[in-house]
Task: structure prediction
Amino acid sequence: MPEPEWRRIYGFRVVISAPSASPPAPPRPLRARLAGFAGVLFILAGLVTVGVALASQVHAPRPSASAAGTIGGRGPALDPSPPVSVSIPAIGVRSDLLDLGLNPDGTMAVPSLTTSADEAAWYKYSATPGARGTSVIEGHVDTYEGPAVFFRLGALRPGEQIDVTLADGITAVFRITGVREYRKSNFPANTIYGPTGYAALHLITCGGAFDYAAGHYLSSTVVFATLASYRLARL
Result:
């Protein structure tokens, strides 16, 4: 396994690695930059959050130590089908899913803060939710106006449910196994994006303390879930 390469992105260090995923990913040089997502995920959200924090002092919940749980599990798998929406009842989230890939510079594209802060996005180079492999869904934590779609992601706990409706009409039902916070300077990219032998779902947003001098969050909140069951569309 190649040694990780250190680079400096937006003034802080991240580990550059090249996890493989299913379905087929972009060429390796682009894929290798995905680890930088740990450092630049929602960087725009981090910049505008200064206004939120100063104006209201409302802070997103952070995962508790008791919610760390595990990062994997076993369960069924579904045939690949693109996702169309996600629902997280425990924190009141219901969002259509955008379908995003990479920016021209190879970094992961994120929803627009001005038009789509209340929408989550599926990373289209990850597995489709419910299919064998790692599926990644991202969302902003906040904006100038206040909380965004994944503001309460850190309040989730193991055992709670995530429903993802697929284009074929099936709803994939995931059970959360763990909720963790990772420093962006030591983000475990292979753990988050790497391949699995089961149907894994990882939800990601910014989290932790906000660095006012640098203008970004210092950590990322990651929810780990595995496919538990599925529901067929009602006729």
Observations:
- The radius of gyration is 17 Å.
- The chain has one domain: 5-231.
- The beta strands are 5-9, 12-16, 83-88, 93-100, 120-123, 133-138, 161-166, 171-183, 199-211, 216-231.
